[in-house]
Amino acid sequence: MRVLLIVNAIASSVTARRRVVIQKALGADHDLEVAETARKGHAARLAHGAAADGVDVVVVLAGDGTLNEAADGLAGTNTALAPLPGGSTNVFARSIGVSRDPIEATAELLTSLEHRSFERVGLGLVNDRHFLVHCGIGFDAAVIEQAERRSVMKRYAAPVLFVAAAFDTWLRVYDHSRPRFDFELPDGELIDGSIFAIVSNTTPYTYFGSRPVIVEDRIGLHDALAVMVFRTRRMSGIVRVGVSAVASRRLVRRHPGVVHRRGITSMKVRGDGPFPYQVDGEHLGTAEELSISYEPDVLTLVMPEAHDEQARGRS
User: Fold this and answer.
1) High-pLDDT (> 70) share of the chain, %
2) How far is 58 from 52, CA to CA, in rounded Å?
3) Among residues 290, 291, 286, which one has the least CA distance to residue 275?
4) What is the pLDDT of residues 29-48, one digit of tens each?
5) Is the pTM of this model over 0.90?
6) How far apart (Å, rounded) are the C-alpha atoms in residues 154 and 120?
């Protein structure tokens, strides 16, 4: 197969030794090209160009942000995407069962390519940007923006960084004194008065160390979107829901200031002024209105054999 390996050389888990081992392993059995990202958006252009050139598989050795860009570039094409864990958290790769070690994950990938373990899946779309895992709106996105400013810390202490960024953002940066935006759903329902929302395409939302942070249970690769809308503006409530998302998840489902909706194929977000948003952990700026939708069967993934066998067992 023709394979393009996209590498983010400054990603948290990417080292020169790992890169050499991975390149040799992939190049032994496949026609391999290697490209290194140089700036934001570069992976999307590399992936889109590879699809136009007839490349069979784009492998991404990077974190979730670079993987998101590659998925966005490949959406609607026949070229497959394969994640290798190169970032600090690697949410999507872990969610589909890819090994956390990049070398082990490469061995798994070679087996999947040999067996042509491919699967067509759906993606979320916010305005013109696809997302694999989630779209965060409001406070969540403001936290991501603050964490990106301390990106050097992600290599060594990502969970601590995000907790610190969350408290700093709440206390000094994000205006939570008033509602920031409303959700309009296809059936006409209006969820108003929100300061924070997560639109999920998969489970989990993220990981805190080895523990998954789950805000919506059992969102699969072929399910429409789920949305979790925070209407509470109390820090204590948000902290309690966050702790519950790592533990029992009972409060996530039952908190009176949180609204859940599932099976959503489209929605509008309208703001009272500009609000921040992010996809898959990458801050995209601010907007006053967002159109969010679900696109089924739009991306081909190279799936780990274990995940593929579990899916066959459920069918």
Assistant:
1) 94
2) 12
3) 286
4) 999 999 999 999 999 999 99
5) yes
6) 32
